[in-house]
Every structure is written in C-alpha cells, then in structure tokens.
Amino acid sequence: MSERTPVGVLLSGRGSNFLALETAMRESRVPARVALVVSNRPQAAGLARARELGLATVCLPHGDYPQRRAHDEAVVAELRRAGVEWVCLAGYMRLLSADFVRAYPQRIVNIHPSLLPAFPGLEAQRQALEHGVRVSGCTVHLVDEGLDSGPIVVQRAVEVRDDDTVETLSARILEQEHVAYPEALRRLLSEPWRREGRRVIFG
Ligand code: GAR
Fold it and tell me: What atom of ligand 1 comes closest to residue 92's alpha carbon?
C-alpha cells in the first residue's frame, strides 16, 4: 500500500464525520491514517468512540487555558508530537487562531453543513430553513483565519423539502457530509491540486 498520511482529527461532539473518515481510511478509500484524535470536550461521544477503536486520543478542555491562543498552542504541540501532517476538523466547534492556521498551511480541512458562502457559523441548517432556500447541502473547505471562509474543495447539494424540520434536513445533509468529507480528503491527498485565488483546482 502506498504511504498513508498521518491525520489529526479535531472534534467536539458526536463524531460521525470522524467515523466516516476513519472508516474510509481503514478501507483504503483514503490514503491516510488517524494519528491522533483531539477533543476540547471530555464528554464528546466521538472521543469515546476513538478510544474504543484503539486510536490515540487527547482531551484538552478549552476552559483550562487562559486564551484561545494558549489552547491552540497546546493542540498544535500534541498534533506535532503525534507526527500529524494534515488536520481534519470534524464538528470542532472552535475558531482556530491565526497561529494554528499558520502551523499547518493549506493542510487543515473543515466540513460545514451548508453550501458556503451561504450560512456560515452556528446552526447552518436552521439558518437555511429560516431563509427559505430550496437547496442546501455541505461544503468541505480548506481552513483560513476566517469563519468558514476558506477555499472550497467539495460541495454536495441537498434539496430542502416543504415539510423539513431542522432535524430532518440536518439528517439528509449529514448523509452527504459522510460522502463529501472522505472524497475531499482522498482527492487532496492523492491528486495534484493547486490553489488559485479562492479556488482549489485539481489536475
Ligand atoms: C456536522 O454537521 C458538521 O458539518 C458540523 O457539526 C456537525 C458535527 O457532527 N460542523 C459545523 O457546523 C462547523 N461549523 P459530527 O460530530 O457527527 O461529525
């Protein structure tokens, strides 16, 4: 098998995107391995699942640090110690400081439950419903210093139904997230690509 890139996964909650990535890596659909799972919340279900899978984990509660920068420094130190080369944010509900982004330039990926640049930030699915869009979806993007603002890698669209609730729409978007995230990481790690302005261009 070709070289597998050591990836660090950062999560704050359920961890279903982490599991979709980990499964794709284990099945060799993505040429990578999970080198470390980091959570800022001790009670995150994703963290417990990672431990069950026998993966290396670390929990760094953000409340233990005086400011974002100090917390991010601790996270980056753990990632470096584990030899992490790429970072996947998987429901990591923290903005990254500029120093964090600079520590892994163009090597941090995030998934967001809307078709960016529409509905950045919290509760993207609720924002989409309240706005009345007929189509929403998910976006995998490279992380820059802004809020959900980095160059887009993969998007998948989901139709909004008249009877959708936040829960039903979120569930259908989540299904597409689990397809989009492994696909985006696979392409970033195995295909030539370049960034042109805001665009990620493959080939
Ligand atoms: C996912 O829907 C992800 O797109 C979203 O949090 C959920 C995490 O679920 N992320 C954001 O809203 C980031 N702005 P998961 O823990 O089951 O992967």
Answer: 13
- Encoded tokens for 75: 């996270």
Cβ neighbours around 63 below 10 Å, total? 7
Neighbours of 135 (CB within 10 A): 11
CA distance 115 to 127: 12
Share of the chain above pLDDT 90, in %: 99
What tokens does 124 get? 């993207």
Classified as helix, coil or strand, 33 is: strand
Pocket of ligand 1 contains residue 14 by CB under 6 Å: yes
Distance between CA atoms of 175 and 138, rounded to whole angstroms?
Answer: 10
Tell me what the mean pLDDT of segment 93-97 comes to: 95
Nearest CA to ligand 1 atom 12: 112
